Amino acid sequence: MPVNLVAPDPKSLLPVAGVALGVAEANIRKPNRKDLLVIRLDDGAKVAGVFTQNRFCAAPVVVTRQHLSMLDPAASIRALVVNTGNANAGTGKDGLGHARQTCAGLAELLGCTSVQVLPFSTGVIMEPLPVERITAGLPACIADLRADNWYRAAQAIMTTDTLPKATSSQAKIGNATVTITGIAKGAGMIHPNMATMLGFVATDARVSLPLLKGAVAHAAKHAFNCITVDGDTSTNDAFMLIASGKAGMDELGDAHSPDFVALRDAITEVATRLAQAIVRDGEGATKFIAIRVEGGRSEDECRKIGFAIAHSPLVKTAFFASDPNLGRILAATGNAGVTDLDVEKIELYLDDVLVARHGGRNPDYQEADGQRVMKQSEITVRVVLNRGGSSAVLWTCDMSHDYVSINADYRS
């Protein structure tokens, strides 16, 4: 079961003016499951995104980037189309053609150009995209378009996820109350190098495109780029931010204004909830672990050490076994590539328990205290470097027998 994660209440997911969502069962890989999603945007909406840094990126990532760069400044993105069950990655020129064919099919139904449609896929890599099934399912998505369809949309993008991931928030921006709603999917192949497997967040705020790009980059860095399940970066990662501009407010155009900072932070909070839900639903996970690295010389240094701990199979399996074999955390810290660390200054805490200091075990540490914390379903690891004023927090999970089983059987 996911770590302290429950499915969102559909009634808690707030509609975003100018955004409608439609879902269909297109039998892309398995029958009788929601596997196709269309997100239709009113004219004038702005869209920005960040994408996987994996050089073997999927065809829909390539096409989405191209469409965003080719879009006429006088036009706007009118739709996103997402399929699960097939990643359309490692599919060469045919995959690019299939992604473009999907866009053309939806554009014809919506009365826009194919460049105004952005495609996204997730699922099995190196299998031909069944584009005929997708285009055949698009009319059902169109017929299902509703503003209050966020919960079913979250279901339609799942792969090995056990629960849909969605959340909403509202924020006071100037004299307007703006709405922010988002969905995400992901449980394995999670070490985002930009975002997550797939994430879509929409707001009705009015914001310029340059500021929207800044907001999506900020949210990616401080939310999705702070999680890891298994250290693998997907070929299909995409995190998209939509601003419909329907809120009754002046357009935000100053990156330093308090109103933009408030909007950016509210978007980041929604992204953080989604990112943490991915870790809580990590394949086979039984523990949710926050790793705080404090007292570093830079945030990047703290993140490097945090990820060295989070990626260590020895650390992750010790957490699964509730075994306070905490020397593994010290070993990962020392192996993070920060060559001038003074281990005499480092302190290691497990929740409130001081485990190590002055280069070794704390004389007052009792294994029973470590055991008590390790048995919890939520744990905080604190590494205090005592060499500066920077810090970083990352979120990860343990690694269980089920992780191996899920991925061994993924294609069956």
Q: What class, by secondary structure content?
A: alpha+beta
Mean pLDDT: 92
What is the percent of helical residues? 25-40%
Rounded to an integer, what's the Rg over CA atoms?
Answer: 22 Å
What is the CATH architecture assignment of the largest domain? 4-Layer Sandwich
What is the end-to-end distance?
21 Å
The fold-level CATH name of the largest domain is L-amino peptidase D-ALA esterase/amidase
Domain count, please report it. 2
Series of H and E elements? EEEHEHEHHEEEHEHEHHHEEEHEEH
Strand order of the largest sheet: 13-12-11-14-10-15
CATH top level of the largest domain?
Alpha Beta
Question: In a nutshell, what does this entry contain?
Answer:
By secondary structure, the protein is of the alpha+beta class. It is built from 11 helices and 15 strands.
Molecular structure report:
The chain has 412 residues and is an alpha+beta fold. It has 2 domains: 10-276, L-amino peptidase D-ALA esterase/amidase (4-Layer Sandwich); 288-408, ArgJ beta chain, C-terminal domain (Ubiquitin-like (UB roll), Roll), CATH 3.10.20.340. It is built from 11 helices and 15 strands. The chain has helices at residues 59-70, 92-110, 131-143, 150-156, 209-222, 258-280, 299-311, 313-320, 327-334, 367-374, 401-408, and strands at 19-24, 36-41, 46-51, 79-86, 117-124, 165-173, 176-185, 198-203, 238-243, 288-296, 347-350, 353-357, 360-361, 378-384, 390-397. The strands form 3 sheets. The chain has a 6-stranded mixed β-sheet. It has a 5-stranded mixed β-sheet with strand order 3-9-8-7-6, sandwiched between helices. A 4-stranded mixed β-sheet has the order 1-2-4-5, sandwiched between helices. Strand 12 and strand 13 (360-361) form a beta hairpin. The mean pLDDT is 92.
